[in-house]
Amino acid sequence: MSHLREIIHWHFSPETGCPFWLDWAKKNFDPRQEIKSFADMLKFPHFQDESLRDLQPEVWVPQSNKGRPFNIFETGGTTGMPKQRIGWDDYKNRLRRVFWKSLRRTFPARRRLAHGRPDRSASLCASPSSTLPTSAAARATSSISDRAG
Description:
By secondary structure, the protein is mainly alpha-helical.
């Protein structure tokens, strides 16, 4: 329950929340006061996912990241029209995890030790083009590969 209260407070506090949720609270109710249990979550109406398609990405930027450049990620539209979300460094962390997993599968420890650094031509970085420009993907992969040896 404390985790839920922490999340609610973070999203709806003027010090940390993003413009979308702060505006929502002004028009509806202050969840920091009203949400006291999981059952209280039913007070929230169904989220209109059109907001993720139609609104400018800046409305989703939390105060802690205000003014900081962000990346826009677009879904594939599997369940309807594509939606957007924004992010900062999470794609880099995900890319690192995927790269290291594939590196361990492709080059077992004994081969890495016996042959030194794996041949870079065996590395593959696949990321959505809307997530990361190609040159940035190459830099990220190269940077990760450099640490692999």
